[in-house]
Specification:
heterodimer, A: seven-stranded parallel β-sheet, B: three-stranded parallel β-sheet, 7 helices, binds flavin-adenine dinucleotide
Chain lengths: 347, 254
């Protein structure tokens, strides 16, 4: 019977929602293959998260809350993954395509002399093997790949495998496992952490409102007199523009994205960047305001379900990928849009 | 530090009979790797040491190495062997690790990922082959002590900023926040043009062909996406907004 391992990616006791999507995908594979799903949960709240994994479709969970795993450290996590994989011989180990997921899948492949199929968007089970589809060249092409060693290691792209649904009546066993490495065997140590602004989480967002260089172009706003530097004036203007995006994002529970031009100009931190050299996102709704739609930006968002473009320039390439477009000034349209959504959604 | 030669990101990429084609678009150094070159140069300027750029690939990859040399790397080495023609990421990692070991490197620097296959696993895989700590998404190196064999890095993780201390040698993947890559200088470009770049085979690295486990069955163009564009117009922003909201809600995505 084939066993599917799912690594639950968590940070400070909070699972990344993409982890549950992977459990759901693994459940479907296991049902097809006549196999079972084991969730692997390391770090704080491991036992509670293990229960949640079972609600999402795992048959059992292996949990380790050992202090050496409180902070994610790749060596400590990989060694335990490798040990458990050797003990249980799973057919495949599935990870969400997060930074940690990719990193661990790669390292585990080395330990187990296997290979890794990263950022997979579709899986077919053929003769007992997982044949994976993954976008390459920024989504311009698709590659069908297979890993001819066992276990097969895959990372699954967020939002590519359907919405997970929890069933709190599901039950399964949670076994607690011991860490593979002692503190002294781990070469690195986390000594400090500062949380980000929390408005980023682009990978998981169902709705993203993104701004580009256009957000800093309002001719009707005058920066306060104490700002004399031209660059600072521009950034002040950009912040007024991004404030309009943020208001709309709040009404829709959305994340705020940005083009590289907006990031490079210092309007928002890099963590917001969508595109080939930023985040690749795939929300249900992507609203692009003041973004021209350069190929590298499209590479990061073109698989969004519904794209809305707001741009002054009717010839902007963003309109080619947009389901709905508005040719106009974002400074006028965004407040009106926020107001209209508030009314329609009763907020 | 490791660089890769890739098609320009604006290239129109097509596929014919399973062969990827980027027309006459230029091959360029992977943009992520430029940040790693910059980081390597800054670290060597501050803490001493030499920067060697390695690339695995065919003769084309020498262009990426020349770019790295023009930016200021001291040496460049091409890792090239017919047995690596279809190397998967694990096989690549084993070859890169052998190169780092042969040269007795203290730090291996990588870009975050390559924009051709977008795998993003080579840095951590190479680290694992070497048995070195993998420090990814590094945005700054506030402390480095080559003699004491310690390093402190600031990582730009999704959740915020994290400071990690580690033993050396270590493998780092560098992100954009580190520093804007410098432009190659005129002198650098001349030097790079004249440079003899050695090619190392697997035998030179002292390893046999690493096993390939990942097989590419097919490469295809994605199904064309039918987007029906609709431009929303109206008498006023409020009017347009009301229509747009109706349309969006009609798509059932909220
Ligand atoms: C190797 C490489 C990697 C790259 N990676 C990325 C990436 O990851 N992500 C990314 O986004 N880009 C990336 N780029 C950059 C990309 O090529 C573009 O330069 C960038 O996306 C442009 O950003 P923009 O659309 O905000 O700015 P611009 O192209 O300047 O567009 C601004 C738009 O705003 C509109 N506008 C102005 N004022 C208003 C207003 N008041 N109301 C409405 N519309 C207005 C204008 O009509 C214009 O279309 C990359 C480039 C390279 C070479």
């Amino acid at each position: 019977m084939s066993k599917f391992f799912v690594f639950i990616d968590q940070f400070k006791g909070q699972a990344l929602p993409a982890s549950w999507e992977v459990v759901t995908a693994a459940r479907q594979l296991a049902d097809q293959a006549g196999g079972s799903v084991s969730a692997l949960v390391f770090g704080p709240e491991a036992e509670a998260l293990a229960q949640t994994a079972i609600h999402y479709g795992a048959d059992e969970a292996l949990a380790c809350a050992d202090a050496t795993l409180s902070d994610y450290r790749p060596e400590a996590y990989t060694s335990l993954l490798a040990q458990l994989a050797k003990e249980h011989s799973p057919q495949a180990v599935l990870f969400p395509t997060t930074t940690r997921g990719r990193e661990l899948a790669g390292m585990l492949a080395i330990d187990l002399e296997s290979g890794v199929l990263p950022d997979v968007t579709a899986i077919n089970l053929q003769d007992g093997k997982l044949v994976a589809t993954r976008p390459i060249y920024a989504g311009k092409l698709l590659a069908k790949v297979v890993c001819n060693a066992t276990p097969q290691l895959l990372t699954l792209r967020a939002r590519a495998f359907g919405k997970p649904a929890a069933d709190s009546s599901r039950s399964g066993s949670v076994s607690s496992v011991a860490a593979a490495l002692a503190e002294g065997d781990i070469a690195s140590k986390v000594v400090d952490y500062a949380a980000g602004d929390g408005r980023v989480s682009l990978g998981d967002a169902g709705v993203i409102i993104s701004g580009g260089r256009g957000v800093a172009t309002n001719p009707n706003l005058t920066p306060p007199a104490e700002i004399t530097d031209a660059k600072e004036k521009e950034i002040w203007l950009a912040h007024q523009g991004f404030a309009l995006l943020t208001e709309l994002a709040e009404v829709l529970g959305a994340a705020v994205g940005a083009s590289r031009a907006a990031v490079d100009a210092g309007y928002v931190p890099y963590a917001h960047q969508v595109g080939q050299t930023g985040k690749v996102v795939s929300p249900d709704l992507y609203i692009a305001a003041g973004i021209s739609g350069a190929i590298q930006h499209l590479a990061g968002m073109r698989t969004s379900k519904v794209i809305v473009a707001i741009n002054k320039d009717a010839d902007a390439p963003i309109f080619k990928v947009a389901r709905f477009g508005v040719v106009g000034d974002l400074y006028e349209l965004l407040p009106a849009l926020t107001q209209a959504f508030k009314e329609r959604l009763n907020k | 530090m490791f660089v890769k030669q890739v098609p320009d990101s604006a290239a129109k990429i097509t596929v014919e009979n399973g062969v990827v084609n980027w027309g006459d678009a230029p091959l360029v150094i992977n943009p992520w790797d430029e940040y790693a070159v910059e980081a390597a140069l800054l670290l060597a300027e501050k803490h001493g040491g030499e920067v060697t750029a390695y690339s695995l690939g065919d003769e084309n990859a020498k262009e990426a190495l020349k770019h790295a040399l023009a930016m200021g790397c001291q040496q460049a080495v091409l890792i090239s062997d017919p047995a690596l023609a279809n190397a998967d990421t694990a096989a690549v990692a084993r070859a890169l690790a052998a190169a780092a070991q042969k040269d007795g490197a203290d730090l291996a620097l990588f870009g975050k990922q390559a924009i051709d296959w977008d795998s993003g696993v080579t840095p951590s895989m190479t680290a694992r082959v070497l048995g070195w700590p993998a420090l990814s998404l590094v945005a700054a190196v506030p402390a480095l002590d080559p003699a004491g064999k310690t390093i402190k890095v600031e990582r730009a993780i999704e959740e915020g900023r994290q400071v990690v201390e580690s033993r050396l040698p270590a493998a780092l993947s560098i992100v954009k926040d580190y520093a804007e890559p410098r432009y190659p200088s005129f002198m650098g470009i001349r030097k790079a043009a004249q440079a003899q770049i050695p090619s190392w085979t697997l035998a030179d690295l002292g390893i046999s062909a690493p096993a390939n486990t990942v097989e590419t069955l097919e490469i295809s163009a994605p199904p064309a996406r039918e987007v029906s564009n609709e431009i929303i117009t109206g008498d006023s922003p409020a009017d347009i907004a009301a229509k747009l909201v109706d349309k969006i809600i009609g798509e059932g995505v909220l």
